[in-house]
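Q: Could you predict the 3D structure of Heme chaperone HemW?
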Amino acid sequence: MVSALPIGDPAPTDGSLPAALTIDPAVDFGVYLHVPFCRVRCGYCDFNTYTSSELQGARQDQYADTLLHEVALSRRVLADAGALRPATTVFFGGGTPTLLPAGDLGRMLAGVQSTFGLVPGAEVTVEANPDTVTDAVAAELAASGVTRLSIGMQSAVPRVLAALDRTHDPDNVATAVAAARRAGLDVSVDLIYGAPGETLDDWRRSLQTAVALEPDHISAYALIIEEGTKLHRQIRRGEVPAPDDDLQADMYELADGTLAAAGFDWYEVSNWARGDHHRSRHNLAYWRGTDWWGFGPGAHSHVAGLRWWNVKHPAAYAQRVGSGQSPAAGRERPDAASRELEDVLLRSRIRDGIEIARLSADGRTAVAGLIADGLIEGADALRGRIVLTLRGRLLADAVVRALTA
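A: Sure. Here are the predicted structure tokens for Heme chaperone HemW:
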């Protein structure tokens, strides 16, 4: 089961933006391209993804052309609003984008480039399952304009992968990284910690294996049990243990120490990079609240404070865009208080932090106590910014509550 869409206002069938919306042309514009296909559904995943038996008539081989209909619609919508900007980042996410032929991904990227243009040096990322990356695939992606491959490693321990229902061969991670390197691509690897039965030694092995691959970037996410997933049902029935918060905290501290020793700097709570130039600029755009258009079923978009989200099923999505209609299922425009809360929530997670001057009076009053509790860096606070300590990263939600009380 995938997560439900938010409840919002009806979205117009032509996709038009409110006339009163003021779009700042100086704000970066990103593009997210959702590819909703997977060979199998992982037990922990509640993303909007579909196996071949769940497509109900939607065709994977027609998906690139279908999505490009929405790209064409977006040009009309943004041109009418006077807000066409070149994309600073493009991100193919999923699902498993590399289940599509590399040529299809290239055509989708070419459609984005011809519609909006790309800024010089734009970051273009493709998420990939290790089993789907060959030298030919990596070379074709690089030739089409992709600059970065994000490889779903998750773990180096076979029984941990089995607990997550991951089916890839762990040896293929190194093969995929090498293929990406030969093609001249930047490389990120994604890890998950806290799977049922995973020990601290298992996690150490995964970290050491990831570091030995010498990627440019590593993401490490704590396993979250989402309601409605297979793993959630297994835990509810007592078949597997729930994640242990204390063990996950130990795993996070091990990750931070291991990665720091290997030359990686944290720049967001769950992300480390070898130098600022290897940070994921696309993900930073989300945390900084810039503008982006999400294409594909279930994708979310944000422009000038307006948010909207597409219908979820690929068949419904194809029907909408094929008939010239917007695939948006609903939209909302959060009020100022909600936007301020979200701004603190997101910006406090990144190493650049958030300016103390942006906080409310009560939030500014809480700063001294957070320094005393070892949750934010005192030196950065003296320079006017909230930056989490290692302890603060483990208790980030508590810091946000204190700053927004």
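Q: Anything worth pointing out?
A: The mean pLDDT is 95.
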